[in-house]
Amino acid sequence: MTEADQPRATETDETATGPAATPPKGRRGSGVRTVAIVALATLAGAVAGALALYGMNRLPGNAQAPEVTSAPAAEPASSKVADAACQGTVERARALAPLVKGDLAAFAVATEPRRLPPLAFADGKGKEVTLADFRGRVVLLNLWATWCVPCRKEMPDLDRLQATLGGPDFEVVAVNLDTRDPEKPRAFLNEIGVKSLVFYADPATRTFQALRGAGRGFGLPTTLIVDRDGCEMGFLAGPANWGGPDAEALVRAALAPSKASAPVR
Fold this sequence. Notes:
Number of helices: 7
Oligomer: single chain
Order of helices and strands: HEHHEEEEHEHEHEEEH
Number of strands: 10
Shape: globular
Helix content: 25-40%
Structural class: alpha+beta
């Protein structure tokens, strides 16, 4: 019961049908309406902020994403991608921890050996490409869509990162998930002057579903750093400034050869 609903101690002691049983006109009603309006405004602001930051659980921009079957309780999603062969990646990923700050403060460094599931998408000519095709290179895998405002803001930064560090040893693989008009993401990238990124698309959202099944695809943008063997070095759920010095330092550390591979003297 709110304070407005409680009887006032100073009211005249009269029967329920008497004048004192009814509060002064407008006082109680306007108070309740004010509280309701403030509550609705607060809720609307919170919802709008959440949607603007990170599209959770489905791809709402073009069409509803195909429904995903959750992993059984007895078999967590992480167990499906656990791979002892990736243990060395976890040890190398520890070197990234001191660099998780500033623009990349939300980046989560891998703490368990995880190999990403098979991922397939298409290049700009419609040819199927798989994550396995990038073996031997460190990959920054990014899932994005034109309806995702934070994703759109990230693209120039990702393009800058590719221009700075891209080459035989590293590539930014930005996979577009627009499900309807295939020309829309291309037109958007052209409009903002993206020059270095190779265009990749997955209108069927298979990559999103596969990563979600592995516990890594619950919204957009989603970004992962994958080592030369296809093992996860870390991931970020949400946007970041991938074109800044913090991101460059993090990726350079991911590119550094492991100490174990150095020749023994």
